[in-house]
Amino acid sequence: MEGQVHVMFVLINVLGMLLGARGKDYVSAVGDPGMRRDGLRVGFEAWNFCNEVGQEAPEMGSPRAADCFDLSSSSLVHKVSEADNKLGVGKPFPGIKPGALKNPDLYAAEKEKYLGSLCQVEDKPQPWQFWMVMLKNGNYDTNSGLCPENGKKVPPFKPGRFPCFGDGCMNQPILFHQPTQLLEDGTTMTGSFNGTFELDAEVGGGLTSFYEVVWEKKLGVGSWVFKHKLKTSKKYPWLMLYLRADATKGFSGGYHYDTRGMLKTLPESPNFKVRLTLDIKQGGGPKSQFYLVDIGSCWKNDGRQCDGDVLSDVTRYCEMIINPQTAAWCGPTSQKNCPPYHITPKNIKIYRNDTAHFPYGAYHYYCAPGNAQHLEQPVDTCDPYSNPQAQEIVQLLPHPIWADYGYPTKQGDGWEGDGRTWELDVGGLSSRLYFYQDPGTTPARRIWRSIDMGTEIFVSDKDEVAEWSLSDFDVLLT
């Protein structure tokens, strides 16, 4: 028996050394690697069309909330009260800047920082706060003059380009929160955020918009599983729901406010991968631009990092759409929807007018920043209103050309009924994508401030439902 114990001890040590050696290959960029920490940190943010608040929903407070807790003797000790979550314009809290107290947009940004301070976990190289549930309404009342054009204030203009049922169509949602609790079985923890944009409707009462995120985990076992549902309606045909790992301070992708999040180290191309498990129950119909992964950042056209100047900052996005009903808008006869060139894994550059070799089917759509001065023609510029500043978007589709990066290679990979765990070389791929830059300037460092997954149901012509679960989410520095 003593000999067997000694052999077992040696085997355990050898296994530990092997695991330790492998562990050196990757360092997680997130505070909660693989979503395995029992003491959950999750936040909630809702936005209108141009990533602002505009106006709070009645009796809902500012559309920011958090569910954060630690465990003590198998009981949950919550860090955020429901009074904190209900804070709204005019209600002070520690640290708020006086100028933000009555401004819904600034108040929400300050509230996010305050909730982050309650949830913060001390760590190296810096503290982190929470995973972020992001909900966005794509209605735009063009008569409001609320959204700038490429960062520039513009007057109201005639409706028609964007969905809007009339006055109030850009409203914030009703939010219900079920704080995380330990169920009677003594091993399962669960909580949720849910609600609707229809301010006069009952949730679950029929033809209304609806969103829900439920999180669940066994004590000490595996990953949190985040179960998402999103439903559009006639009044709200364009909705977005993502789970994001954002920068812990500074700007996140798409925002010009200081944010809080899970990325304690900002990943930089080409040196990172993303690992996650995705199981799609319902895809959300033909208009659902379901992103296996979406990365966002911000740098200026001359390569400098963003500094909050919305006239010169540019949000950059790269999105892999896995809905097999999403066709390639990029093609040999529609080259304005393609990036000027494609770079292969072997660093061979293929121009979009090389119709024999350019992989048109690998790109859904490319659009250039509206404030760029030296665009290569033909070109389509991105929607100038849906971000606080100009934006540039590269949207990809499953294609054999992405195989070297671990991305889907054919339509239907990872779609409904094909749940799987992905390990994606997001850093390697994003290092080779085309992004606009002014001629003669130093190439931008591609440092990514948001990495997320979810769907954008893009102006559906009938009520659609998307349902999916996400777990094991991690960002690995290589």
From TrEMBL:
The answer, when asked if Signal is one of the entry's keywords, is yes
What's in the keyword line of the UniProt record? Signal
Q: Where are the transmembrane segments?
A: none
Q: ATP-binding as a keyword? A: no
User: Ranges for the DUF7705 domain?
Assistant: 27-477
Which InterPro entries does its entry note?
DUF7705
The residue range of the signal peptide is: 1-23
Please identify the protein, giving its name as recorded: DUF7705 domain-containing protein
